[in-house]
Amino acid sequence: MGDTRTKLLEGALETLRTQGIATTSARSIAATAGVNQALVFYHFGSVDDLLAAALRHGAEQRVALYRTRFAAVTSLRELLELGRALHEEERAAGNLAVLAQMLAGSQTDDKLAPATAAGLGMWVAELEDVLGRVLVDTPLAEFVDVGGLARAAAAAFVGLELYEGVDKDGAERALASLEQLSDLVTLLEELGPLTRRTVRGRLRRARGNARGDDVRP
Amino acid sequence: MGDTRTKLLEGALETLRTQGIATTSARSIAATAGVNQALVFYHFGSVDDLLAAALRHGAEQRVALYRTRFAAVTSLRELLELGRALHEEERAAGNLAVLAQMLAGSQTDDKLAPATAAGLGMWVAELEDVLGRVLVDTPLAEFVDVGGLARAAAAAFVGLELYEGVDKDGAERALASLEQLSDLVTLLEELGPLTRRTVRGRLRRARGNARGDDVRP
DNA sequence: GTCTATAGTCGGATAGAC
DNA sequence: GTCTATCCGACTATAGAC
User: Fold this and answer.
1) Which among A59, A52, A61 is positioned nearest to A12, based on CA atoms?
2) In strand C, which positions have an atom below 7 A from any protein CB?
3) Angle B104-A162-A12 (CA atoms, 0-180°, nearest 5)?
């Protein structure tokens, strides 16, 4: 844990988080990690390679940390509450701000992009699991691609993280409205069997119509 | 339009879009704009100030360009379709990738943050308008803070833009699932009056319960 | 593995000629 | 308003002593 490689990996995460992709460099990382600047190149070859390794390192760590809490979720509401908690915990300690910075950097850096996709993919896989579990026996699972939903949710989460950095109140309001929305969905789940059957019938009929063609399997 | 100031504003946008915040500099912007590097400081004082001005410039231009199309939207489905079109058009020509880069930069640069918040705010205002119009007479407008929803949607949109940069297929899947989701909501809007009354009643009863306290006006 | 030193490049910003 | 020239700090990366 105290070896130089690890110090550099965690120094890279901390630097990305607190200084952003624009000012993250071998020198700033080494300063944060408390090691010599040349060691970045000895251990990782280049700054980009260090960043890629650091993201993987951080995502593995963090996803593992949340796994039991994801596993305990049994409703959409609980999932959103976990999301809110995660949002706050990660802002202080973690990996989401890093993910956002790496995503920004990856738009124009082909060496960063695959690592970022993999890091985000770990969160997506976790979310896909939970969503599949929580939404089973709801119209959502039947009529909406849950994997797509998981991807949309992960991307949205990163967007909210970035948004919070420039408008804290606005982000809080956004999060609150999503909770109201999830209450609405929860209540629909609890509708009587007759109503549910009606909804389901309508959806099935509608699916036959236009735009059913561009829906993925 | 051909004057130096404008060239710099548009050069800044283009540079942010194609090179990202990490490699955007007075020199790279000036090269893109085809003007001398020292003019950045003569006209705008600093790089940050130029970026702030450029974002405002671009957001005004782009929001105005889409205003009539936003105004023509009459359903959630249409709104999502406009979102998809906007997503594709802006990727080539515009302001959304810039917004994402500025958001990333703003997390750790206090000079950039207010300008970014203002630029994003223009899109939020537009969205809030349309959503208010489209959702009127639905349970959503009554039980969910539409302004919060607009903020969540704008943030999510930026997140999707970033996500697309590292996983094009995943982003497409995310967008498709949102369209499926909007179909579902649309159909709920079309439920018979009896069912609607049931839903509304349930929501009203539920609102009295726990967590009604942290809901914004 | 870790350090110093350094090459060579690029960055923000300014001074001063035109 | 625009240009050249320049200061000086920060950057990636490497060579070579320890």
Assistant:
1) A52
2) 1-5, 10-16
3) 55
- Check whether residue B47 has its CB closer than 7 Å to nucleic acid strand C: yes
Quick one: CA dihedral B183, B70, B168, A118, positive or negative?
A: negative
Q: pLDDT tens digit string along B79-129?
A: 989 999 998 888 777 789 999 999 999 999 999 999 999 999 999 999 999
Whether A16 shows a pLDDT value over 90: the answer reads yes
pLDDT higher than threshold 70 for residue B207:
no
Q: Does B190 touch chain A (CB under 8 A)?
A: yes
CB-based contacts of A14: which residues, under 8 Å, 6+ apart? A32
**B46-211 placed in CATH 1.10.357.10:** yes
Contacts of B204 in chain A (CB under 8 A): none
Provide, rounded to the nearest whole percent, the portion of chain A with pLDDT above 70: 91
Residue-level length of chain B? 217
Interchain CB distance below 8 Å, B147 and A195? no
Two structure tokens written together for A201: 């019938």
Q: Which residue has the higher pLDDT, B214 or B35?
A: B35
| Whole-number Å distance between alpha carbons of B158 and B59 | 14
Nearest residue to B191 (alpha-carbon basis) of A125, A3, A133, A206: A206
pLDDT in tens, A94-121: 789 999 999 999 999 999 999 999 999 9
Per DSSP, the three-state class of B106 is helix
**Please, what's the b/e burial string for B27-52 (b: 16 or more CB within 10 A of its CB; e: otherwise)?**
ebbbebbebeeebbeebbeebebbbb
Query: Looking at the partner chain, which of A100, A180, A214 has a beta carbon nearest the beta carbon of B215?
Result: A180
The angle subtended at Cα B56 by Cα B51 and Cα B58, nearest 5°, is: 90
